[in-house]
Amino acid sequence: MKNLIEKPTLAIFTNFFIDNEERLQRMKDSFNSFKDIKPKEWVINIRGNLKHKAGNFLKKELGEELNLFYLQSKQGWMYDSLIISEKINSDYVLYWIEDHILIVTPKDLENCITEMK
What we know:
Elements: E1 10-17, H1 21-34, E2 41-47, H2 51-62, E3 66-69, H3 77-85, E4 92-95, H4 106-116
Parallel strand pairs: 1-2, 1-4, 2-3
């Protein structure tokens, strides 16, 4: 009998600061490099002058899959990250940095996450 492992769930989590067009474009390029990994959830906070422009891009791409925040409290980045992290309900979390590009296939990443479980 084959040993069946339940597919692990993944959340994409980040707390971006998008304050210029270059950072916005890097975020879009990064997103496009790994959007096909199909995580269970996207939990994203965006700060900076272009937060709404970045948020609108992600809303258009992800729709209902996106759990979007625009927090920027006086307590700081870590405090805000802890607040939004409470929304995560997945086995694993991939912390997304806006200028990172996925250099393996989405299937390779999925296999790595399954192997971790």
